Amino acid sequence: MKKIIIHTIPIIISLIWLIVNNDTFNPISLKGPEFLKFYLILLLGFYVSIFILKSFKDVVSKTTFYFMISIFVLGIVKLMRGIILEKPVGFLLIILAIETIIGSFLMLKLLTGDEK
């Protein structure tokens, strides 16, 4: 339960930013730079929550992995929308590549059961 609450906080913060600055609940409808701001707030908040859990001596769990996958899927959906609308998607592609690398390391820790 603690993991779900800690991982939900960055989602709530990014949604509050989305509502306050853009008057919408739908991050997919945002233009490129605004979506990138939203997505970076969401990602950075999520990785801060992982470090908070690490400070509590908690291990990377399936809950963390599921949150990471859902954030990644959001980025992929926006990437596909940008490609279909023939918009520049370079920055989002770079962010998704970095997220894939970090996700691979976290998944490796989850699969090996490495707690250190």
Q: TL;DR?
A:
The protein has 116 residues and is mostly helical. It is built from four helices and no strands. The longest helix has 24 residues.
Structure report:
The chain has 116 residues and is mainly α. It has one domain (2-112). 78% of the residues lie in helices and 0% in strands. The protein has helices spanning 2-22, 32-55, 62-84, 90-112. Helix 1 packs antiparallel against helix 2, helix 2 runs antiparallel to helix 3 (62-84) and helix 3 runs antiparallel to helix 4. The radius of gyration is 15 Å and the shape is globular. The mean pLDDT is 88.
Give the tags.
116 residues, mainly alpha, 4 helices, 78% helix
Any idea what the radius of gyration is? 15 Å
Q: How much strand?
A: under 5%
Q: How many domains in all?
A: 1
Question: What is the H-and-E element order?
Answer: HHHH
Helix/strand/pairing category = mainly alpha
Q: Which residue ranges are poorly predicted, with pLDDT under 50 across at least 5 consecutive positions?
A: none
| Mean residue pLDDT | 88
> What is the helix tally?
4
Organism: Chryseobacterium glaciei
Protein name: Multipass membrane protein
Transmembrane segments: 5-20, 35-53, 65-84, 90-111
Keywords: Membrane, Transmembrane, Transmembrane helix
